[in-house]
């Protein structure tokens, strides 16, 4: 049963990570074990002041099985990942920022206010033509997951889908030269 859940969750979180949209995990409270793994499948992580992330798998006689360890290494590097996994270390917002595990600590711990703050923060990445946002996500995913030559081909192919497209033509009309 554990292996079935492992395979299901690896597949689910990999699909989340590869969605052609920008995702954010809003950590309010404690993201332990599987919750910590889930945060690694998102493009960004935002934390509220009293929140924490903790990979407690070691205390359960386990290692992450949903892909959280592999993604954590890519986010914070192998040394920091070893500390967080091997020590089941508590990661408060300040430490998460230092490690690159979180992008920002939101001002509010209030659930409703924090959600609004997260939406406002995320809007800087999600406002604009959907086709361009999806293309950005695809080239970043290719750069992260593919060997360099394949990532370069993918980037070229995706560039070809937006070059001369409606968003590109509208941008040229609005701003013919960069300022």
From TrEMBL:
Its main location: cytoplasm. It is found in: Cytoplasm, Cytosol. InterPro entries: ClpP/crotonase-like_dom_sf, Enoyl-CoA_hyd/isom_CS, Enoyl-CoA_hydra/iso. GO terms for cellular component: cytosol. Keywords: Cytoplasm, Lyase. It catalyses: (2R)-ethylmalonyl-CoA + H(+) = butanoyl-CoA + CO2; (2S)-ethylmalonyl-CoA + H(+) = butanoyl-CoA + CO2; (S)-methylmalonyl-CoA + H(+) = propanoyl-CoA + CO2. GO terms for biological process: fatty acid beta-oxidation. One of its GO terms (molecular function) is methyl/ethyl malonyl-CoA decarboxylase activity. It is an enzyme of class 4 (lyase). Its EC number is 4.1.1.94. Gene3D superfamilies: 2-enoyl-CoA Hydratase, Chain A, domain 1. Transmembrane segments: none annotated. PROSITE patterns: ENOYL_COA_HYDRATASE (PS00166). CDD domains: crotonase-like. The keyword Lyase applies. Belongs to the enoyl-CoA hydratase/isomerase family. Decarboxylates ethylmalonyl-CoA, a potentially toxic metabolite, to form butyryl-CoA, suggesting it might be involved in metabolite proofreading. Acts preferentially on (S)-ethylmalonyl-CoA but also has some activity on the (R)-isomer. Also has methylmalonyl-CoA decarboxylase activity at lower level. This is Ethylmalonyl-CoA decarboxylase. It comes from Erpornis zantholeuca. The lineage of its organism: Eukaryota, Metazoa, Chordata, Craniata, Vertebrata. The gene is Echdc1.
């Amino acid at each position: 049963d554990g292996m079935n859940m492992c395979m299901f969750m690896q597949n689910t979180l990999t699909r989340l990570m590869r969605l052609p949209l920008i995702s954010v995990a809003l950590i309010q409270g404690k993201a332990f074990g599987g919750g910590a793994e889930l945060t690694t499948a998102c493009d960004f992580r935002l934390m509220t002041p009293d929140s924490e992330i903790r990979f407690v798998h070691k205390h359960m006689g386990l290692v992450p099985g949903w892909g959280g360890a592999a993604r954590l290494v890519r986010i914070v590097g192998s040394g920091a990942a070893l500390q967080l996994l091997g020590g089941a270390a508590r990661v408060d917002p300040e430490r998460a920022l230092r490690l690159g595990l979180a992008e920002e600590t939101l001002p509010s711990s209030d659930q409703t206010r924090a959600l609004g703050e997260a939406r406002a923060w995320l809007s800087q990445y999600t406002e604009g033509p959907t086709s361009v946002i999806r293309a950005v996500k695809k080239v970043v995913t290719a750069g992260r997951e593919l060997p360099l030559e394949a990532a370069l081909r993918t980037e070229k192919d995706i560039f070809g889908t937006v070059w001369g497209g409606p968003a590109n033509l509208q941008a040229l009309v609005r701003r013919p030269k960069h300022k």
